[in-house]
Amino acid sequence: MSKSEHPLLLRQESKRFPSDHAGKYLWRINCLRIVGKGSMMNIRIAITLLLVAAISAGQAQTPTKTWDGFVTDTDCGTNCQRTSAMTPDRACVRLCVRKGSKYALWYGNHVYALEPQSKPARFAAVKVHVVGELSNDVITIMSIAPIPAIPAPESQR
Predict the structure, then answer these.
(1) Per the domain annotation, does 156 fall within a domain?
(2) CA contacts within 13 A on the Cβ side of 57
């Protein structure tokens, strides 16, 4: 295929701007243009648009975070503490979810809804380590795993 038959060709153009009345050109602009199917697009504009798109896409990504907390539900939240250790009660959490509440993570003094709901279902009232993204008080789970309970030290006699 010869250069003239190729659908997209690069062509260098020069534009001169006279301005000093002595017939001299103060400066010259060289730019590459893509020629194809009768339309021309300036490469500088294309590169600028690509950079803007790349920067926008980079800023739109939500950073991944980690949380350690108890799986509870959005209805009771931190009020489902029926155990002596002040942790959520498994039966209460499951009952609330069956009635329409959603699984949530009790982290500090806040309760975050968890999505997708299928992942935390087996960890009701269990202390877990969650990796995910937070958006509008909803954690989108990337991974969830139980945190092993540390046995209480034996009392000294």
Answers:
(1) no
(2) 6
Residue 116 gets which letter from DSSP?
A: S
CA 19/CA 15 separation, integer angstroms? 13
Please list the residues that pair with 145 across neighbouring strands.
129
pTM: 0.55
C-alpha radius of gyration, the chain, whole number: 31
Asked if residue 111 and residue 76 are part of one domain, the reply reads yes
pLDDT given at position 100: 92
Query: Tell me: the pLDDT tens digits for 62-80?
Result: 688 999 999 999 887 766 6
Q: What is the total count of domains within the chain?
A: 2
Angle at the Cα of 136 from the Cα atoms of 132 and 138, rounded to 5 degrees? 40
Separation of alpha carbons 81 and 97, rounded Å: 16
| DSSP structure class, residue 6 | -
Residue 42 and residue 69 in one domain: no
Burial profile 46-58: b = 16 or more Cβ within 10 angstroms, e = fewer: eeeeeeeeeeeee
What's the mean pLDDT in 20-38? 51
Encoding tokens for residue 86? Answer: 């002040």
Per residue in 82-129, pLDDT (tens digit) is: 655 677 888 888 988 999 999 999 998 889 999 999 999 999 989 999
